[in-house]
Amino acid sequence: MATHAHEHHKESFVSKYIFTMDHKMIAKQFLVTGMFMATIGMIMSILFRIQLAWPGESFKFLTFFLGEKWAPGGVLDPNMYLALGTIHGTIMVFFLLTAGLSGTFSNLLIPLQIGARDMASGFMNMLSYWFFFTASVIMLVSLFVESGPAAAGWTVYPPLSALPQAIPGSGLGMTLWLVSMTLFIASQLIGGLNYIVTIVNLRTKGMTMTRLPLTMWALLVTAILGLLSFPVLLSAALLLVFDRMFGTSFYLSDIYIAGEALENSGGSPILYQHLFWFLGHPEVYIILLPALGLTSEIISNNSRKPIFGYRAMIGSILAIGFLSFIVWGHHMFVTGMDPFIGAVFTFTTLLIAIPSAVKAFNYITTLWKGNIRFTPAMMFSVAMVSTFISGGLTGIILADSALDINLHDTYFVVAHFHIVMGLSAVLAMFAGVYHWYPKMYGRMLNMKLGYAHFWLTFVSGYGVFFPMHFLGLAGVPRRYYTNSEFPLFDAFIDMNVLMTVFAIVGSAAQVIFFFNFFYSMVRGPKASQNPWQANSLEWTTPVEHIHGNWPGALPEVHRWAYDYSKPGKDEDFVPQTVPLAEGETDGEH
Amino acid sequence: MTFLIILLVLLVFAALIQLVRVFELTGKLKGNNQDRIDFKENRFRAKLWLVFGAGYFAFIIWLIVKYGPVMLPEAASEHGATIDSVMAFNWAILFLAFAITHVLLFYFASKYYWMPNRKADYITHNNKLELVWTSFPAIVLAVIIIYGLSAWNDITDEAPSNGINIELYSKQFDWTARYAGSDSTLGAANINFINTSNPLGLITPETIETRISEIEDEITKLEGDLEEAPEDGLKEEELTEKIARKNRQLNKILAYKRKNEVEPYRSADDDKLVKVEFHVPVGVPVNFQFRSQDVIHSAYMPHFRAQMNTVPGTITEFHFTPTITTAEMRQKTGNSEFNYLLLCNKICGAAHYNMQMNIIVESQEAYDKWLAEQSTFTSSETAELRNQINEQLAQN
User: Fold this and answer.
1) 20 to 30 A from A452, CA-CA: which of A85, A172, B92, B375?
2) What CA–CA distance (Å, rounded) separates A256 from B299?
3) Is the pLDDT of residue A1 over 50?
4) Which of A303, A369, A408 is facing B307, going by the closest CB pair?
5) Cβ–Cβ gap A386/B306 under 8 Å
């Protein structure tokens, strides 16, 4: 292996940049594809937010973007409104925060932080990306079909998603959605298996499980969750395909639509919801755990202080991972599910608050008596702790079945998950990009632009989503094309305008990020090998990317990744490769 | 216009490039290395967290002051009051947790900024502290769970037997309320009986006969079309399939007819159907059953803190006791146009945003009077006539 790493063979453009099997390049592919998809998802949200702020008003550019069919006379069509919401959700949840987030950082960091030459299977890793890429292309193609893209909400509940008579988006658009998601799931499974095998088998000498950085623990548990839950979504999707195309009745029964009684009998739409949320809830943690992993690393590094309660953090990750499989029913309290089962789900769901609280306290305590450097990555990470707490607490209300009766499917839910899952994960992903950009591109991002980007993003994030709690508490349902049919909701007209303005500002701020990202790739100052004085192994690799990551032998690990400001050391960091001194103890002692 | 937008984007990019150049040059002049941190700037960023924290709290307070008064009024149902107190209890705990954690977060962030000659404390863990902050939330959550679940158990308990029975029936995109009528039971229904005059598919001797003759007519017409259709064409195949389907439907209805003759279905004759607005008496339990015609909808009555999905193929249930009449609530809210609402709260298609019904809560007398004015599904003359014929048949 060691000799192999020294070989310098000329690579063609295609094998270096396109069909690459190098994990570092695949990570960049995931990141850039994710960013591209996110931009589309974000523009969609602007389009429907404009409708919510100024319902019925004519905006010529809507017709420019969507055509006369979907925005006649500059006013968004209700079916297109629902389609935009659906695709926005799908893209953000799956393409950005699942593939974009863990795809990028699992690929970049797993081999580098455990001391491996590459992923266990470079080929499967490449396959994982190309399945994802194809899924993205098909999802984008579905935007252009005659009857419009899928429009039944990102959860695509049947019968709405099963019957083209019910909504135009359930025609070809929905078929493409299912095809795209099937490929996407394949990508996740191939990638996930690879991540697990790599972390379990390819750790370098001395890298015991309890010396792994928390990013590794988070990404490992994330991959396991994905591996166990995505197949269930696949089965849900396949049964839906059967119902749509082959006349089966898994989810359909006793339906009269478009002047006709359908012959489907004996199925249950609730079955779909069980299958969907069996993925859907672990999915929340598939998004959140990598975010928590990245910020753990960044907060510890920039506080120049060990992460507080390393073992408790691992325990919390495992507990959250386990519990996430037995809470899915809290999405279904008002489906007519047996109240006793509802009670069980309330109980298990509220249990998750305990490991989550432990994590939040550990973050805060890590800052305590630290020596904090506020790099842009650190700003994003501290912000993420705030959104994680703000959004997490409202989860306690929604998990309470009695309280959920009145808040289910209102804007309160939209506020909750956009803050705890959307904002937290996006902020953490930005933190990760700012922190590991030098590792990815060998150059530094511009810090000043980073701060500007941070404040605009963070403040507008809260500005968009926090007021939604109030809409929800006033009983405003989500997925309404306009609230103007209810005089009861007139009091919130100006609030909707405020949220839309924040959404536009927040989106515009991403231009700064994109500019910084691509400009610094060519013009940014050259990065040194370990710009953040960090302990973990990725910073012992050369700045220039080479196959096999380390030029010589693989590094040997002698300590955990969190020896920051250790007493008796000259520097305030001790890389994992430094042997323990006489009488020095390792880890949490 | 498009040209202007492109020009604007280009200008913004050009400005950004210049800005970065300026940053870089000033950085070089100051001798700034990207790897090293500027103490003053870092301290400034630390202090910004306090500013942000204050702003965040101010924003929340502003929202509460401005929008607090337009939240839902007090719960208008018995269990709704329970839900509101559980909610208030939860809010008290959550506000406290929110405030404490955020104050600590922003305070620590602003206080422990980097100093060149200081080292952070090497604190890896603290078992005592961790035990406290694991067990304390656990205890608080136990209280939340027990309080919440005891409310949940009460709310979802068996429907009281002294209540009135109402069905809420959803379809794209409106609601129908059906009252049980004089026999206090909701009549049987099936999708194969749905036609323009029977939107809920209720089963009565008349609707059985109507549907049989309707479907027979349709089949005759389709068979006529089939004869005219060119042989072996797509049209022929389609028509043959349609006829087969209609025949299957006819057989289902005939099966209902035979079963009805042996053991009659729960009568739907006396059921009363209303649209746009339905009435309930104050202080009497209302037992709702929900059905849906096409896709999943959700019957959301926020003022009563009540919600239940309507699921095609399944009957779902919810019950509550209204406690405040519409007139009283109009007085309390000072809004003479106030109405209790039924909304759709599950995405169901293009007009999901406008699927509503008004709910009127009134005294028992007013309710009885209103209900008496509503016509039954089968007109009383028809039912009378049918009974007479049946009696005659029985006598013969």
Assistant:
1) A85
2) 19
3) no
4) A408
5) no
CB-based contacts of A445: which residues, under 8 Å, 6+ apart?
A: A376, A433, A434, A437, A516, A517, A520, A524
Give pTM, 2 decimals.
Answer: 0.94
Mutation site, B24, B32, B122, B337, interface A, largest A CB count within 10 A: B122
Q: What is the CATH number of domain B272-380?
A: 2.60.40.420
Helix (H) or strand (E) holding A259: none
Which residues in B lie closer than 8 A to residue A256 (C-beta atoms)? 171, 191, 194, 201, 293-294
Our separate counts of H helices and E strands in chain B read 9, 10
Q: Please tell me the CATH superfamily of domain A321-526, with its number.
A: Cytochrome c oxidase-like, subunit I domain (1.20.210.10)
Please list every residue in chain B whose beta carbon sits closer than 8 Å to the beta carbon of residue A157.
Answer: 296, 346-347
ipTM comes to 0.94
Distance from CA of A11 to the nearest CA of B (A): 33
Considering only alpha carbons, which residue of chain B is nearest residue A490? Answer: B70
Rounded CA separation A121/A119 (Å): 5
Q: What's the residue count for chain A?
A: 589
Per-residue model confidence as pLDDT tens digits over A171-187? 999 999 999 999 999 99
* pLDDT tens by residue, A231-277: 999 999 999 999 999 999 999 999 999 999 999 999 999 999 999 99
A28-251: CATH topology: Cytochrome C Oxidase; Chain A (1.20.210)
Domain residue spans of chain A: 28-251, 321-526, 527-589
Tell me the shortest Cα–Cα distance from B60 to chain A, in angstroms: 8
C-alpha dihedral, A561 to A562 to A565 to A571, nearest 10°: 10
Instruction: Using DSSP bridges, classify how beta strands B277-281 and B356-362 pair: parallel, antiparallel or unpaired.
Output: parallel
Site of tokens 């953000």? A92
- Give me the residues of B, 123-142, that contact A with CB < 8 A: 123-126, 129-130, 133-134, 137-138, 141
- For chain A, the 3-state helix, strand and coil shares in percent, each to the nearest 5, are 65, 0, 30
Element (H, E) at B286: strand B286-292
